[in-house]
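Table S2 (text version). Query chain:
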Amino acid sequence: MTAHPASKATPSGPRLSRRGFLAGTGAAAGLFTFGFSFPLATPVAAQGAAPEVNAWVVIQPDETVIIRIARIEMGQGSLTGLAQLVAEELDCDWDKVRFELVNPAENARRGNVWNTQSTGGSRAIRGSQDYVRRGGAAARAVLLEAAAKGWGVPTGECTVAKGVITHTPTKRTTTYGAVAGTAGAITPPADVRLKDPAAWTIAGQPVKRLDTKDKLDGSLVYGIDYRMPGMLVAVPKACPVHGGTLKSFDAAAVAGMPGVKHVLKVDDETVAVVADTFWRAKTALDALPITWDEGPNAKVSSETIAAMVREGLTAETPFVGNAIGDAKGTLAGARRVIEADYGFPYQNHAPMEVLAATVRWTPERCEVWGPTQVPEAALAAVSAAAGLPASACDIQVMRIGGSFGRRLQTDYLTMATRIARQVPGTPVKMMWTREEDMLQGRFHPITQCRLRASLDAKGEVEALHMRISGQSIAIYAIPGLMTAKGDPLVFQGLTPGGEMALGYTIPNLLIDHAMRNPHIRPGAWRGVNLNQNAIYLECFIDELAETAGQDPLAFRRTLMRNHPKHLAVLEAAAKGIGWETPPAKGRARGIAQVMGFGSYVAAAAEVSVADGQLKIHRIVAATDPGHVVNPQQVDAQVSGSFVYGLSAMLYGECTVKDGRIEQENFDTYNVMRLDEMPAVEVITLPSGGFWGGVGEPTIAVAAPAVLNAVFAATGKRVRQLPLKNVDLNVS
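Corresponding structure-token output:
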């Protein structure tokens, strides 16, 4: 059971009985703030209750252990995983652990004591593990010292297990709850020793999640559900053609409709209706006469975008992500060149919870209740939109009903604040319709890829040129990431080293990018560019194996002889699917591997195709993330990632007509159903020595493993997604 301390509220203010928030204000922190204060700051009273032991730990007299969570929970389980790491070093009783969410204003006020709160790129645990563990260890140290001082004995004579402290020579005992009041005043040690993961008893175990009960009983309030006294609801509509503007609207035409309070211009692209309920605001917005200036992008279509991107396949480009030897020269002199073009469409995040946030603005203060993946950047965006210093703004961070990268952007919080600023003193919940959420997304970027390779006399790859053409997320959303080599996000899984390293040794290699940016706005979509890069490379590797007359696994083994960690997960997936034994009649298998977000991953799939219909029977996934904090959560995340990756492969496609996205709801943007989901077996191979991600890496291997199996079953190469557009009938 999860208990959340209630936040303080005035009689007219919000009541958040299921969620503990820290009070306070402060300056905004940026999206990519990596500097931090060591998390052992001067303790303060927590919510007027027990004094904190340090920034991470509050222990109440009844032995309840409250662990502060700064990263954002979106269903991925990082909230529980981070609490496990703190609790492990603290040596407390897991059954008594509860959590409290940190808000960005308090973090800023206390000098970023909780470090960055930004959550994306599967970094919540791997990017926090060291300092949160140190926070737990430091809390343990001062609690032991407090007990020792109370007994007048050396601290070294004291031990602790499950929050019970024992003086070994005399067998006297006390508890964390009994000494927590004095422990917070003790200066923590300058350094603490962290446990060897081999000795973990809480971390590394499939303990129960802390954030489940309120989801199951329906009491959890997401941003879309939030209510407070006197609240109005705003429903916005922006120009459906990205880059277009709002020309005019006739507010008088809907002013007399039931419940309508305001019809507002939000910005140059957007109008909103404010009413006493969502339905009344939406009904009035649907009836509102609006004139858009759609601009030159109104003539753009999927076909014109495809032509723009296709031109980049042969153009000169300065952006090189990986270069070894002389790929172009070797290919020019090769006896035979194998060539293939692949393509990946626009995709929508389409989370169940549409974008929403509640804002109360006054000339002195701006308060926000809502979900975000980037609290520091969100606070800065709210401050700018509110026209107030960050110290006069506050965001109560709420748990997220799905995001997949969409809430890395702060556009919806800016919009909500601008609306509330025009209705001062009144809390306004801005809520997008599903259609608006789909039309105004930040879409997975569209790309095409041309791969050209040659084989030597032994059938090994002697040269490979991989040309990617398409959009850059960085140049649109994070321009500070751009370098002379272009957008590093484009080359995920294809770099010579780092957390997205290529797992093959090829003597002559060139991977480059021709940037082509249509007007559709791109964004980080769960797994980002690793997804299509894995499809491009892993399916083409299968094509090369076929040309060489070799088994796909054996062919890869040769290329991966200098990459043992890549090869280890590939071998594990192959063994799990039974690669060395023939599949049942009518079934076929495919395999793929990649490194992404610091983890080595592979998948092997078994499928059948009958009368043109694909059935995915099994997928075996192998992952080496270095360390596993909660094996149950790893299993859940890998299985869930396959739902996402396979949905994209089967159905995910956003098309453009007259400058706008055509898919406005789930009737035209399909996702996998339960009866389509294969059996999934997850093999974890934590080799230690590094920390990798879990939520995103395995998305990338789902599609290529299945596509390679489809070829084995049908003899057809699928190079353009989604599969719903492909005829799989065998002629």
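Notes on Table S2: Residues 52-216 form a domain with the Aldehyde Oxidoreductase; domain 4 fold (CATH 3.30.365.10). The CA atoms of residues 140 and 388 lie 40 Å apart.
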